[in-house]
Write a structure and sequence with these properties.
- The chain is an alpha+beta fold.
- Helix content is about 25%, strand content about 30%.
- Helix 5 (about 200-210) crosses helix 7.
Length: about 280
């Protein structure tokens, strides 16, 4: 059963003129809870702080978020915590309120960690592109219509994720994940200076690759690199590394680079990557 706090109170009411509803004026974080702990909470909060400042949103206190999370998690060991910060209610029109009163929503859904098939997952390329906007790139804003429309493109339950391209038909990200390729003896991931989210698990993989001496290049990637790749995987805060078995007819096998990264993440507490 999902549980929610709105501005610290067990309330489900939200002002109909809240700018998060009327304009998508806000941010969110999705955090894995494992063994009662909010995994990589510090990294999620750091991204939230940076994003709030970029949008001129008041920053919620870390202590208040942790207190709310502890209250909601209770005796449950595993689940997903969601933090939503909006600019709050305001008058009609796009002009920023002179004295914004932000709305902070914390929700928790008890659930078992998602299963990650050893053989990998099936993935497809989406027709819906992601827009280029350097002002918003990297942040998890409440504007997710592109991802909603991309996810609406398929109903096959065996396809678990879709890869989104930009209007130049370059690789960007999954609908809910970041993308990595192993090719030419190194790691590749799309640069996210125009679109996409700087995922917390993506950052963990980049940091881990540096520690392990695995070369990694962040740049604009053509779709054709998928044909060269020895392995492809996706990253997400809830699943760690999601190996890709098949992508629109292309098949992949687990590579030593991917296995090293999975073992490294398992040592950092990402139990979904444990053997």
């Amino acid at each position: 059963m999902k549980r929610w706090l709105v501005n610290g109170e067990p309330d489900t009411n939200l002002m109909p003129f809240d700018r998060g509803l009327t304009y998508g004026d806000g941010l969110f974080e999705t955090i894995a809870v494992r063994a009662g702990e909010c995994r990589f909470f510090g990294a999620h909060y750091a991204r939230l702080v940076v994003s709030c400042r970029r949008l001129s949103l008041p920053v919620p206190a870390q202590e208040g978020l942790l207190e709310g999370a502890t209250q909601l998690i209770g005796n449950d060991a595993d689940g997903t915590l969601k933090i939503i910060v909006t600019r709050g209610a305001g008058a009609r029109g796009y002009r920023l309120p002179d004295d914004p009163q932000p709305t902070c929503i914390i929700g928790f859904s008890p659930e078992a960690p998602p299963a990650v098939p050893d053989s990998g997952v099936r993935v497809r390329i989406c027709r819906t592109p992601v827009s280029a906007n350097p002002v918003l790139a990297g942040m998890k804003t409440l504007n997710r219509l592109e991802q909603v429309m991309a996810r609406a493109e398929w109903d096959d339950p065996e396809i678990l994720e879709g890869i989104m391209l930009n209007v130049r038909e370059e690789l960007v990200c999954g609908t809910m994940s970041n993308l990595f390729l192993v090719a030419r003896g190194q790691l590749w991931t799309p640069v996210l200076d125009e679109s996409g989210v700087h995922g917390v698990m993506r950052s963990q993989v980049l940091d881990l690759a540096d520690d392990l001496g695995i070369p990694c290049t962040e740049q604009r990637l053509a779709v054709s690199l998928l044909d060269e790749a020895d392995d492809v995987f996706l990253t997400n805060a809830r699943v760690g590394i999601w190996p890709v078995a098949e992508l629109d007819g292309r098949t992949y096998q687990r590579n030593d680079v991917t296995l090293q990264l999975r073992r490294g993440l398992a040592e950092r507490g990402v139990i979904e990557c444990a053997d």
